[in-house]
Design a protein that fits this description.
25% helix, single chain, globular
């Protein structure tokens, strides 16, 4: 019996030590498949490609570049929105994936089994125009995503946006309380399920202001190839939203939106949408 346990322990130790680089090879193949599918869904917006990869024993780095299509940039009319934003989108976005591979994974969401844990951060590294905006907002990054490449099916993910305050020289003020979404994703099939919150926010300019309390979000979306639309359900709720100026103040309480969509073709979407409002008051300032 003791000999059997020793043999089993030895085999497990060998697997834990020597399996990661092999698993890393398969994990990178899955990530490449994710990128290919994403491109099929967003070809009208732009294209993402893996520019380089460095595979180690337990960890790897994959560098990706996202470039927006000329038609999409023309539709956004970024040149009219300001030189900084236009330069940022024209240059595209450089991102690095940090990949930890092995059968036993320890993502922030807790212990799980899978091929790899991937950390993707959209920051100023290799993006000087983006870094300029990050410096103005005084935040380290715009978006951080961690997801698990599963052995099969769906894997858990977490996406966060940090809180920030922005004051434009011409008087525009924008405060945002941050956001966090948890869920699971089957990226090969295009299905994403999640829930979380979009933090408090306030936009103010001159004598006009608009603010909201945290939004609770729940969604179950399936994306089709060659389509920017998704089929599924979405529900968002907030306890309060306010808008006003120097003459009035309007308050919406317990506001919710729900929707269910389906795709007739990759270019046409149908569905049902509804909203519910518990209270609405208007007061003179």
């Amino acid at each position: 019996m003791k000999k059997t346990l020793v043999v089993v322990a030895f085999v497990l130790a060998i697997l834990l030590i020597f399996a990661p680089p092999v698993i890393g090879f398969f994990a990178q193949g899955q990530i490449e498949a994710y990128v290919e599918r994403s491109n099929a869904q967003t070809q009208a917006i732009g294209k993402t490609e893996i520019t380089s990869s460095e595979r180690g024993w337990f960890n790897s780095q994959i560098h990706i570049t996202t470039r927006f299509s000329e038609d999409y940039l023309a539709a956004l009319n970024t040149a009219a929105e300001g030189a900084e934003l236009d330069a940022l989108l024209q240059a595209g976005l450089q991102q690095e994936m940090n990949v930890s591979h092995g059968l036993l994974l320890f993502p922030d969401s807790g212990f799980t089994a899978g091929l790899a844990t991937v950390d993707l951060v959209l920051d100023g590294q290799d993006n000087p125009n983006l870094q300029t905006l990050l410096n103005e907002l005084q935040i380290p990054h715009f978006l951080a995503v961690q997801f698990v490449v599963p052995l099969a099916g769906s894997g858990p993910f977490t996406a966060t946006v940090p809180a920030f305050e922005y004051q434009h020289p011409e008087g525009l003020q924008f405060n945002f309380g941050g956001s966090k979404i948890n869920g699971s994703a089957n990226l090969l099939r295009g299905r994403v399920v999640g829930s979380g919150n979009i933090g408090t926010g306030k936009v103010a300019a001159a004598d006009t202001n608009f603010s909201w309390q945290p939004w609770q979000v729940e969604f179950d979306q399936t994306y089709m190839d060659n389509s920017a639309f998704a089929a599924g359900t979405l529900a968002v709720t907030t306890p309060e939203m306010r808008a006003g100026n120097d003459t009035f103040d309007a308050t919406f309480t317990d506001l919710s939106f729900t929707g269910a969509t389906e795709l007739d073709t990759p270019d046409t979407m149908g569905g049902t949408f509804a909203y519910d409002l518990d209270g609405f008051t208007v007061r003179n300032a």
